[in-house]
Design brief:
By secondary structure, the protein is of the alpha/beta class. The chain folds into 2 domains: 100 residues, Rossmann fold, CATH 3.40.50; 91 residues, Formyl transferase, N-terminal domain (Rossmann fold, 3-Layer(aba) Sandwich). The strands form 2 sheets. It has a 7-stranded mixed β-sheet, sandwiched between helices. Helix 2 links the parallel strand 2 and strand 3. Helix 1 crosses helix 6 and helix 5 packs across helix 6. The longest helix has 25 residues. The radius of gyration is 16 Å and the shape is globular.
């Protein structure tokens, strides 16, 4: 059973979805620690309510390397096998990524490589795409770039606005993350170029 470390900056809805899936036995894993770079992140309170170790390591005003080293130390202290970014609004340094090769997952609310970066759902809506979705991928040294593990598509309806589209994508995110953690935990895949082959 893999020990998960969750990094978040906000409400942590993907964290709670993962925790719920563990609680009902859909996912065989354990959340060892939840870490946030923001003291006001709702996800920290959600972790404490579930009696999961929760740590705040404020990033504001700290050099990136210093903050990354503190975060990696906390992950190691909790014997984390897989790091899951769940709305973590910081870019990880190349050094951080190298500490957990092919062991850091991120979820992004678009069908990468389309619409990387912030406000992906709004970008997709404004661009007029007919299909949007979400992607769980390995984290590498570039933004929203590593090999793709799972993607879920969502049709863009004529009746949609940015909010309704974002909510439907979020529903798929909650399914996709658990699916991706299962794939990575089982280890029955190879990375061929950028492709995950099972």
């Amino acid at each position: 059973m893999k020990n998960l470390g969750i990094l978040l900056s906000g409400r942590g809805s993907n964290f709670t979805a993962i925790a719920d899936n563990i609680a009902v036995g859909t996912l065989a894993a354990r959340i060892s620690v939840v870490i946030s770079n923001r003291s006001d992140a709702q996800g920290i309170e959600a972790a404490r309510q579930r009696r999961i170790p929760a740590i705040v390591l404020p990033s504001k005003g700290k050099p990136r390397e210093e903050h990354d080293r503190a975060t990696v130390a906390a992950l190691r202290d909790h014997n984390v096998d897989l790091v899951c970014l769940a709305g973590y609004m910081r870019l990880l340094s190349p050094w951080f990524v190298q500490q957990f090769p092919h062991k850091i997952l991120n979820i992004h609310p678009s069908l990468l490589p389309a619409f990387p970066g912030l406000e992906a759902q709004q970008q997709a809506f404004a661009f007029g795409v007919k299909i949007a979705g979400c992607t769980v991928h390995f984290v590498d040294e570039e933004l929203d770039h590593g090999p793709i593990i799972v993607q879920k598509s969502v049709p863009v309806l004529d009746s949609d606005d940015e909010h309704t589209l974002a909510m439907r994508i979020l529903e798929q995110e909650h399914l996709a993350y658990t699916e991706a953690i299962k794939i990575v935990s089982e280890g029955k895949f190879k990375i061929v170029g950028r492709r995950i082959v099972r």
